Amino acid sequence: MNEHHGRRTFGAHAWRIVGVAVTLVATALTVGLTRGRGSSDHPSTAPSAAPVTTAPVLLNGTDDAFIQLLIPMNEGALALIDHLDTRPADAGLRALVDDVRVAHQGELRDLRGLLAAGNVAELDIHEGHQMPGMVTDESLAELRGAPDAEVPSRAVALLRAHLAQTVLLCRGEQTAGGSPELKALAGRIQQARAAELSALDRQAGVG
Structure pTM? Predict the structure, then answer.
């Protein structure tokens, strides 16, 4: 009985997070459309990472959903970058994705640190979902089967979608989030993503 109740509680919590995550995406899209993509969203360099507090934090539903969504998004991007290590790529693109890898790994540590500080369990609630900007198993499988000549352009498209969607999600977190610590982290991630997008566009010869 207790085990059954525990599964029901876990499932209800997961579905609440899914609902908030959908709301967060909608909020982020609204904020993104309202603010546009001004010059302040595209700094020339990514800001240095600031340490996230290990003191207890209070996370509201938006905070929880933001973290639970961004963790698998980062993990998908890292899987994409790891695959690029096995394929031919331009030296400039390889250097760029290496920088993105280091930044994403640091973000994962910070995000999981805030979950722990908020005494919130990490939930794999987005597996199999086609969330905007997420590098899925299916897209990775397609990339693995693509000819070497097509890999760089396909990888850049996947990475750009990931980076752009994260900018929107970070805006949504800063608008609707409750934790000052997480909102500050979202602001730093947004700045980093904008710089990564600019670097990616320069690498691809856009603009």
Answer: 0.76
**Helices 61-84 and 180-204, interaxial angle, to 10°?**
30
Residue 146 DSSP one-character state: S
What sign does the CA torsion over 182, 187, 190, 191 have? negative
Interval 60-69 mean pLDDT: 96
Q: Which amino acid is at 162?
A: H
Nearest CA-CA partner of 60 in 49, 72, 50, 68: 68
**Is the Cα dihedral 139, 145, 151, 153 positive or negative?**
negative
167 and 194 Cβ atoms separated by less than 8 Å:
yes
pLDDT of residue 162: 98
CA 174 to chain centre: 14
Q: Domains of the chain by range and CATH? A: 2-204 (1.20.1260.10)
What 3 state SS string does 66-79 have? Answer: HHHHHHHHHHHHHH
Whether residue 106 contacts residue 50, with contact meaning beta carbons closer than 8 Å, is answered with: no
